[in-house]
Each structure stands twice: as C-alpha cells, then as structure tokens.
Design a protein that fits this description.
- The chain is mainly α.
- The chain has one domain.
- Strand 1 and strand 2 form a beta hairpin.
- A two-stranded antiparallel ribbon has the order 1-2.
- It has four helices and two strands; from the N terminus they run ααααββ.
- This is Cytochrome P450.
C-alpha cells in the first residue's frame, strides 16, 4: 500500500513543480479546466465526455511522468559474464 501512495505523491509533486515553473503551461491547463467547469452546474460530477475534453491536461501529465517517472529503472548486474543470443553480457 505504501508504494502506491509514494508514487502518487511523487507524481503530483512533480506536476505541481512543473506547472509552477511553466506559467504559460499552467495557464493553458487552468483555462481548459475552467472551460469544462463553466459547462457544469454546481455540484455536477464530470462524465466521460468531460474527461476526454482534457487533452492538454493529459498531455501535460504524460510529459511530467516522462521527464520525472515516479519509479526509476532498476539496473541489475550479472554474477558472471555470459553470451546470450549473440550478445555478450558482462
């Protein structure tokens, strides 16, 4: 359970940092969210169509996850040198 919490927190932190450092990007995300919110009545929940309208916001999230993945790659070292499928693994 802790791993899910930590990765979500890390991703949100990096998203907030990215938006704070890129005011033009923040403004575009804000306007996209505002436009959708103005189409809704007070207390009305988002539906699938509303979510699909958030194209720019989704692209921003995807870019932040690409630049700062919450889970880094884990590299391994072979115990002994060997050759596999014609490739030498040190």
């Amino acid at each position: 359970m802790e791993s899910g919490h930590d990765t979500s927190t890390s991703a949100m932190m990096m998203l907030i940092k990215f938006l704070a450092e890129n005011p033009d990007c923040y403004q575009k995300v804000f306007e996209e969210q505002r436009k959708i919110a103005l189409e809704k009545r007070a207390g009305e929940l988002l539906n699938k169509d509303d979510i699909q309208k958030k194209k720019y916001s989704l692209n921003v999230v995807n870019e932040v996850l690409r630049l700062s993945p919450p889970i880094q790659a884990m590299f391994r070292k072979a115990n002994a040198d060997f050759t596999y499928a014609g490739f030498f693994i040190p």
